[in-house]
Design goal:
- InterPro entries: 6-blade_b-propeller_TolB-like.
- By secondary structure, this protein is mainly beta.
- It folds into two domains: 1-31; 32-324, TolB, C-terminal domain (Neuraminidase), CATH 2.120.10.
- Helices cover 8% and strands 42% of the residues.
- The protein has one helix spanning 5-31, and strands at 42-47, 52-57, 65-68, 75-79, 82-87, 90-95, 101-105, 113-116, 122-129, 132-140, 146-152, 161-163, 169-173, 176-180, 186-191, 203-206, 212-215, 222-225, 231-235, 245-251, 257-262, 276-279, 285-289, 299-304, 314-316, 322-324.
- It has a four-stranded antiparallel β-sheet, with no helix packed on it.
- The longest helix is centred in the N-terminal third of the chain and has 27 residues, at 5-31.
Length: 326
């Protein structure tokens, strides 16, 4: 087919306009993944570098508070306006309005992480602990007394634990994530790809389609595994946000993943990287937050409070999204 020079120019202009319009439409659709309110979120943040817990209102800094806390891992809304943080001896509960300590358990030195269960008890985890070899889970009641003990032999490293909707546990163990039952049996597992060989993976959540999404520590990405344990997706942030160590994360109501991008031990990392990164379910980075270097060093955990009832205990539902326990 022959197109004259004049018509060819018109054809090119029309094609360019169509392509531009398509790109604008795609960009608009992508932008819908991040709510307009992203920059006015209310957050609870755990800063490992400073051993600090904070409340941050991105729209009103007058409401912010920052308090020192013991070293430890994980954080969770546990009702009565409180947030639970794991410590090296058990856990603490802190008042969300002020950051003040209102409760603690200190009888379990060697605790690596703590998580409140649906039944109201608290699960503590450690490695080569409580007189047992391997990853050890201890369930304690409201009085701090041990109710049951679960051992997964053969492991020397543990980070975060998540209870699934069927009552099993997703456990992160350096380069492996596994699902274990209350008998100490491993019923599912997947191996995270490095580098490095031992990435110190942090947290895992089960999705409604049976996939498991993992924040992979020093592998500095998310890795997603199918029900058969095979990898199905990997995604990370752009170079400008300096991906370093993907740690605590939350699946938001729109399906996006919000992760803390930890930068290093100690108080000197406040200028390093963007330490909150948000990804669409397809793995596209759609939002990031640059921390104030005068207030933060290295973020390890996050809870987005918007839309959540802090008077209720929150656990992940079948979609991996936080929901209140009635």
């Amino acid at each position: 087919m022959y197109i004259s020079i004049k018509n060819r120019r018109s054809f090119l202009i029309l094609s360019l306009l169509i392509l531009t319009g398509f790109c604008v439409l795609v960009s608009a659709c992508t932008a819908l993944k991040t709510p307009a309110s992203a920059n006015s979120r209310k957050l609870i943040l755990r800063d490992e570098g400073l051993s600090q817990l904070s409340y941050v209102d991105l729209n009103n800094s007058d409401k912010n508070w920052f308090v020192p806390v013991p070293a430890g891992r994980d954080l969770q809304l546990v009702g009565k306006g409180r947030v639970l943080i794991g410590t090296g001896t058990g856990f603490e509960e802190r008042d969300i309005a002020t950051g003040a300590k209102v409760s603690e358990l200190t009888a379990f030195p060697g605790t690596q992480t703590a998580r409140r269960l649906r039944n109201g008890n608290t699960l503590l985890a450690g490695a080569d602990w409580q007189g047992n070899k391997g990853i050890v889970l201890v369930e304690t009641n409201n009085q701090g007394a041990a109710q049951r003990l679960i051992v997964y032999p053969g492991f020397t490293y543990v980070r975060c634990i998540r209870e699934t909707v069927k009552g099993t546990f997703l456990v992160t163990a350096d380069d492996l994530v596994f699902e274990g039952n209350d008998k100490g049996e491993i019923i599912w597992q997947a191996k995270v790809a490095g580098p490095p060989a031992k990435p110190h993976i942090w947290q895992a959540l089960r999705l409604a389609n049976g996939h498991t999404v993992v924040s992979t520590g020093y592998a500095k990405n998310f890795q997603v595994f199918a029900a058969d344990g095979k990898p199905v997706a990997t995604f990370t942030g752009t170079e400008d946000v300096k991906p370093n160590f993907f740690s605590g994360f939350q699946i938001l109501k729109n399906g996006n993943y919000l992760v803390t991008n930890w930068q290093g031990h100690g108080p000197k990392f406040g200028t390093s990287g963007n330490q909150l990164l948000e990804f669409s379910p397809e793995g596209k980075m759609v939002w990031s937050w640059k921390q104030d270097a005068d207030k933060f060093s290295s973020l390890q955990g996050v809870i987005v409070l918007d839309g959540l009832d802090v008077s209720k205990l929150h656990v992940e539902n079948a979609r991996g999204i936080l929901e209140a326990v009635k």
